């Protein structure tokens, strides 16, 4: 079954066409990586799916429902940003609970969800700390935890590992892969890092100037690039 369907999606900033008639069907449980150089429109596409930006044309469906004009909170998605976006004055536990409290979830259910997320992400010892008392890798785990506790259908990641050093990046890459194997939900993951794409993806969408150049499994893309751009991009890891 299709989890996220993007139909003829266009987005313009003024007269600049940033997304040009995109069509993508993402299967339930699929790990899709959006890969492309800086400025090609990856974040813009993710923000459209999340509802943080309005499409200029086209539609977005999640689990068959047209969500093009739905509020972000009603789309069943959780988003993890490069910059963590944690509330600095709140503890880790407070950060994890915040969205659930706003949704008036009962206290015992909130506690249960936080305990589960903390166990999955191995942040149990950190629950009473403030974000400033965490390392970059720990902050990113908390940011992932915030999507996890909401029990969403679709996770959106925007370059979540870009601020981390190479060793932590490699570690968290493995953890995100494990998380996906455990949760089996749909994940759409933006990166400009070929290694991340090849390790994580069920399929990779290679973007350039707001257009998908090729959408296929990692092997296919690596072995049978459709054009020189894809070949060059996959062949020169940054
Ligand atoms: P990526 O995430 O792939 O690096 P973005 O989606 O952030 O790329 O940006 C795609 C293009 O849209 C870039 O040329 C960028 O300058 C432009 N852009 C992004 N946000 C805005 C905005 N709010 N207003 C005008 N142009 C924007
Ligand atoms: Mg971006």
UniProtKB/TrEMBL annotation:
The keyword Transport applies. It is a peripheral membrane protein. GO terms for molecular function: ABC-type transporter activity; ATP binding; ATP hydrolysis activity. Keywords: ATP-binding, Nucleotide-binding, Sugar transport, Transport. It is found in: Cell inner membrane. GO terms for cellular component: ATP-binding cassette (ABC) transporter complex, substrate-binding subunit-containing. The keyword Oxidoreductase does not apply. One of its GO terms (biological process) is carbohydrate transport. Residues 4-234 form the ABC transporter domain. It comes from the Bacteria. Belongs to the ABC transporter superfamily. This is ABC-type sugar transport system, ATPase component. It comes from Hoeflea phototrophica (strain DSM 17068 / NCIMB 14078 / DFL-43).
